[in-house]
Amino acid sequence: ITVLFLTTGCATQIENRVSIDATPEQAWAVLAEDFANVSAWASEIDHSTGTAQSGVPATRSCETSIGGFKETVLEYDETNRVLAYRAESDDMPSFVRELSNRWTLTPNADGGTDIHMLLNADLSPLGTIMWPVMYSQLNGPVSRTVEDLEYYLENGQPHPRKLAAIEESGQ
């Protein structure tokens, strides 16, 4: 996994890239087509539900250890395998103007998939000052989510940390 941290003005990003041993079709099915069911494999998500319009995911609600989030799909491009969504929460600090995530799945030469995940945060000037703290809080969960997806696709079951979280919660 490659993690890159960029800051330009009030726009900040966390970027993750990983190559996995699963086809783009398999990755798209889990990440995009089953958008509402992220809690099945992502250890940071305790519970998730979603809605669809004309068979395409539209929104998802997620419960996490840091609060609830509503995610609205901004881009759903099945041909190019691009999924983007905005995350909103009453639990987000006021200096976060907008938080969005964009996933791109590309076939690689080994028959697997290159996954590119880009989290964008639009911050107020105070948020720019607070970004190092926010980055330290977001980078771990973001990196674990990419690792969780990789593990799920390559092993056909959730990552051991997700299984432990399920057992601990009694689900």
Features:
single chain; 171 residues; alpha+beta; eight-stranded antiparallel beta sheet; 3 helices; globular
Distance between the ends? 30 Å
Task: Name the structural class.
Answer: alpha+beta
Count of beta strands: 8
Helix share bin? 25-40%
Low-pLDDT segments: 2-8
What is the strand arrangement across the widest sheet?
Answer: 1-2-8-7-6-5-4-3
Rg from C-alpha positions? 16 Å
Number of helices: 3
Dominant shape: globular
- Which H/E pattern describes the elements? EEHEEEEEEHH
- How big a fraction of the residues is strand? 35-45%
Largest sheet: 8 strands, antiparallel
Question: Could you please describe the fold and organization of this structure?
Answer:
The chain has 171 residues and is an alpha+beta fold. The protein has three helices and eight strands. An eight-stranded antiparallel sheet has the order 1-2-8-7-6-5-4-3. Strand 5 (67-77) and strand 6 form a beta hairpin. The radius of gyration is 16 Å and the shape is globular.
Q: Strands, helices and their partners?
A:
Layout: E1 2-8, E2 11-20, H1 24-33, E3 45-53, E4 56-64, E5 67-77, E6 82-88, E7 96-107, E8 113-123, H2 125-155, H3 160-169
Antiparallel strand pairs: 1-2, 2-8, 3-4, 4-5, 5-6, 6-7, 7-8
How would you summarize this macromolecular structure in one to three sentences?
This protein is α+β, with helices and mostly antiparallel strands. 30% of the residues lie in helices and 44% in strands. It has an eight-stranded antiparallel β-sheet.
